[in-house]
Design a protein that fits this description.
By secondary structure, this protein is α/β, with parallel strands linked by helices. Helix content is 52%, strand content 9%. Strand 10 (513-518), helix 20 and strand 11 form a beta-alpha-beta unit.
Amino acid sequence: MNFPSNICALNEEIIVEQLLRSHDPDGRWLDSEMLLQEVETILSFVLQNNVSMPLMTENCLTNIEVFDSKETLPYTISRISIQMLCPCIGENEIQKRRMLLFELLKGYRWDTKAMLVLGALAAVYGGLFLPSHLAICEPVAASIATLNQLPIERTKFRPWFESLSLLVKAMVAVTKCIIKFERLPFKQAKLDSNLVGETLSNIYLATYRVVKSALACLQQIPYFKQIHEATESRKAAGELSTESKRAAGELSSLGYQLLNIHNRLNKQVEECSTRTEEEINQRLRNINMGTHQDNQEILHLLFSHQDNMPLQQYSRQIAITELKEKVILLLLSKPPVEPLFFLLQQLYDHPSNTNTEQNYEIIWIPIPSSQKWTNKEKEIFDFYSNSLPWISVRQPWLMNSKVLNFLRTEWHYGDDEAMVVVIDTNGKVVNMNAMDMVLIWGVKAYPFSVSREDELWEEDNEWSMQLLLDGIHPAFETWVKFLIQMSKIFILFDQIVMRLFLNSTNQVKEGREICIFGSENLDWVDEFVSLARKIQNLGFQIELIYLSKRGRDERTIAMEENSILISPTVQQLFWLRLESIERSKLKRIESSKSDRVIEEVTKLLDFDYGKHKGWAVIGKGSAAAIVDGGKLIERMRRIVRWGEYASELGFTEAIEMAAEKPCEQTHTVVVPFEEASKMRVVTCEKCKRPMKRFVGYQ
């Protein structure tokens, strides 16, 4: 492209100086790319021929928010349209109108200035030409077009429409370049100042040219109507008026000027983009090398955004500086499912979370199924980000593609799983996936490093009910019920679903024992529950929990008051916890060494429901034992036969006694009355079973 003459260069310098004087961005921001998609669809529809129905757009203008602005998007576009439609006579008056528009748009970024002006053009031309466009198949539209003095037959105006289409395409192309440049994360990549400065100068001029061209299009509307009247009066001659040729020529000239600007600007923006991506890639590869003073550098690198508020908690925008001095848990996942609700409960509402000041935060990075976010995925994200207490990326569809690729390739994120990457207060990645340790220990796992996980297993390496059930309690149910009802994507939960988990710790202190059981054989379940009911009636303090790995059966299972039937979702969490325990332990034990926890967890996870009727885990707090379902039924029958003589035993103790082989002969033990009255139960010295009591007199 030839360089402009000295006079043109001087004029451009004056224009840039005027533009910069009227440029004072105040943080207002909107998704220019989304608005551009809508505008491009509207303009391409009203300017084309032989289309009987409008094209459907994926996005909706009502979903485009203007951040940090008191005005709605339609109101802003309406104000701009009014200014652009005011008649202007002469170049001086038109130039004043252009600068007035820039003064009106002073609080916006350059891409937003261009987009709002194009939005005004689409609104006016859409309303103006849509009736004319639909007039062939809609009589009402034809009447409206006639009342507005618009042509139904476009043949006579083909040169004008072709020139307008050329200009619109050029404006859209230039605006795309401006948007791309404004989205480059310059805070995370230091480029050559000369390259950036030269590109910025062209961005200013390109924005000016877009505003100038859009204004010219709207200023031609009165002439267009006059041309239509003149054309109608001399149809017989079949000639276009001089005004029509002049109008088409003006639009074509502006279109070619914009195309020339686009060719130059596009090369510069592409070079800036390439250099930015190269530097960000290099910094991402070295993300855990060297030392940092805090976590700010790495967070800014991951969450480069158009403004200083790339994060949000509910509807509140959050700056990265607010996360300084905190441990950061980066949650990478698709839209939340039940395990992630459990993760939240463990970290935000766990009984052991008594710290008044929370020194960690979860940042949710939602990863879409494909490279492009669908409208449905955006709706799901908006719902969950405004419902759950974690921090989330604001508008994650705007995240840098290089960062997302880094998460998939370098951090090995898979689409079918969630992972939690931990960054300490010094900006160092200390755990590539803390999901398991969080699901097992909750806030006790702070600061969530690999070394902390090793310490926790040294402290808590016993197979127990506490290890199986700790941390699941009613707050989880409250969250899940609310989300399920609102999103309508899961089934409803039982009203009593979490009762056991509320009292699991207190029940141990009170002496109540827990019996978790599972089976795919409903006949076995019925018999187990019947025997358990009889044992409870004998005075045994037992809490029953029914679990099934394949989910809850359709058949209703009768339970006593001191029993609970767990819903499918909570059952899933139980197995999820076991799987987390297994994965965490397998990373830390040697294959040659035996480990009680791994052995017991493996028994449950690999239980063969086809070979065995069922299973049960019995115990309290610090103890637990797995019993085969067939053997358990036999032992429970024996306890029922013992009746009240075994009622003072614990359920676990009674089950263990019932496993012993009974004595072959009946024998009697004489115990003094005073001594016997103090004994909880008298057991046989040989088989350890409870003995019937009789009072004898001498």
